[in-house]
Amino acid sequence: MRNRRYSIFYSFIYGGLCLILFNGNDCIAQPCVNEYTQTINPGQPANPVQKPGWNLIFQDEFTGKGLNMAKWDRTDLTLPGNQNAYTMNPGMVSVASDVCEIKIAGTPYNGGSISVGEIKTMSATNPNFIPYDFHSGLYLEIRAKLPAFHEGIGSAAWLYNCAGPRYNEIVLWETDGYNENRQYASYIWQNGPGNLCGQVLHIGCSCEDVNNNAVFNQGRIKLKDYQNNPVNLSAQFVNYGLKITQDSIIWSVNGVVTKKINVNTNPPGNCITYDKPLNEYTLRINTGIPLTPGNSHLPSAADLPQSLLIDYVRVYQKSGTKAIKLYNPPAEVCKNTSGSFELHHSYYPGATYSWSSPDFTFSTLYQPNANNYVCTVTPLAQTANSSNPYTINLTAAFPGGYTENQDIKVCVVNASPPSPSGNITSSRIGTTCYYEAKLQTTQCEEIEWSEDNGISWTKGNTVLISGQYYSKYGFFDPNTTYTLKVRKSNACGKSSAINKTFTTGSVPSNCAFRLAGSPEDSVSQPEETPFVRGEIRDISHHEGIISLPAWIYPEGKETSLTYRIFDLSGRLLLNGITSHAEIRINKADLPEGILICQVFSESGLLIFTQKIIHIQ
Fold first, then answer.
1. Which H helix or E strand runs over 12?
2. Side-chain half-sphere CA neighbours of 139 within 13 A
């Protein structure tokens, strides 16, 4: 998967498409429309490494005798534009005296007359290079002195994603070759139906409308000092900052905010909407062709060589967010059959990590792509318990000096469970008029329920109530007796099914309802509870996704929502828990026709009802 991602990028470059500092001959630009003036202190010293509220996850202070090739790759490519005169030359990159130097020089290389350089945290040509991928919720800081400003000379630092589903690019700085106190801060995305990154012309903040028409909004920042003098960005080192969240992108120079984009607002031009910066990004820093389209002449020999000097590069992640990602916990294993299971996890390269548990052995199985790893976990001889899970700890130490721990609960069983014991009880669902069934279970067993004498089965929701685990299921009328089939399941198999009968409680005094009709008709909403009767939506064309309205799941707030899907007769077809603003379902689990989807809060309150049409 990793190789495919970067081979795509490689072919796009050689196709002569418009990427940063790569000006294709067919690219047509518009003049600059937005310029912002900011006052900064040009003599500000380097910032401290540690930042309160942030964890350092990537760092290079360039203190070695050469470039750290475990963190950076050097590009070796011929750039489209200007008669292919510019060529990426690895020899233009060097490290000395705690500074990384990236030159632009009149040195012929690989068929080009001008050599430029680039370092990046990915590789288009080396399949063994493990890329550093960065995500939103980060702060990027680079302290740099830019090349002298002359025609044909440019530089840039940018976060880049060409892996889809849409192209994303966030530029920390970029120069036009002429204005020594001006730099460009840009966000580039792709709204239209065009291919990955091939339709994007890099010129400030751009996107595509639905007709693939390029739309541009340049973000040019003019810097001055406190005496109102222009700041020469090639005369001193400057701290460039970039903060990315799910809602905004913020640029700063020497601690002063120079530009901010709220991605929840409407973008400029004919763009449909901002594409939120949630992609995996790699970092690229380079010299090359200036971004200004009119600056098409080659640099003068007298102006070469010039250098981009980088004092340090630091990437931080917001404290409280997890840099380790686990893709498939909790885990279950049947010791008498498979005897082991796989754990998929990812973390930032450069971190050291270790698994810890006295009850399991661990071995790395394979690395399917990028930072994703698969580990085989095998229980030891004494490890087998039918009710309580074991704990596995994953500890990772990152370059910034902090550690991160995550615990994984693993159930190990020897055999299929016995049939359920005990009686079914019922309890009211929040403040609604309805009841749900409850039956005792354990952490390592699930109870499956059937209302049609075993023809179809649905797993209940396992919850901890007063120190005891229960399986909760259903949507039942009050004052009614029901007989259901129940069975237990675990990693080794399923128990025999038995019949159990229970009777729901009386009608709650503070609710009004109608027993007849569909669940939607039966629910009376409290006045303070938002209620939507729902839109009719064909989910067959949305990959089994039911989207919830924005108010039901505030952004950035993690909430466990319970959902239930019924047919019009009130028969429960599917239930589960989601912690996202959408419900993903297997369409094969549902019959065709008009269905009712209800969503309940953590406290059991019915907060949303929606009709959906299901067509296989």
1. helix 2-14
2. 19
CB 413 within 8 A of CB 386: yes
Predicted confidence (pLDDT) per residue in 45-85, tens digit: 999 998 988 888 889 999 988 999 989 998 776 555 455 68
pLDDT in tens, 12-47: 232 222 333 333 322 333 334 467 789 999 989 999
Sort strands 138-145 and 238-244 into parallel, antiparallel or unpaired.
antiparallel
Q: Rounded to a whole number, what is the distance in angstroms from the first to the last CA of the chain? A: 30
Eight-class DSSP state of 452 = S
List the beta bridge partners of residue 139: 243, 316
Cα separations (Å) of 215 from 12, 34, 207? 21, 13, 6
Q: Quick count: other Cβ atoms within 10 Å of Cβ 519? A: 24
> 556 pLDDT band (50/70/90 cuts)?
very low
- Tell me how crowded residue 376 is: count the other CB atoms within 10 A of its CB: 15
> Which of these, 209, 128, 126, 198, lies nearest to 162 by C-alpha position?
198
Assess whether pLDDT exceeds 50 at residue 153.
yes
Whole-structure pTM value = 0.64
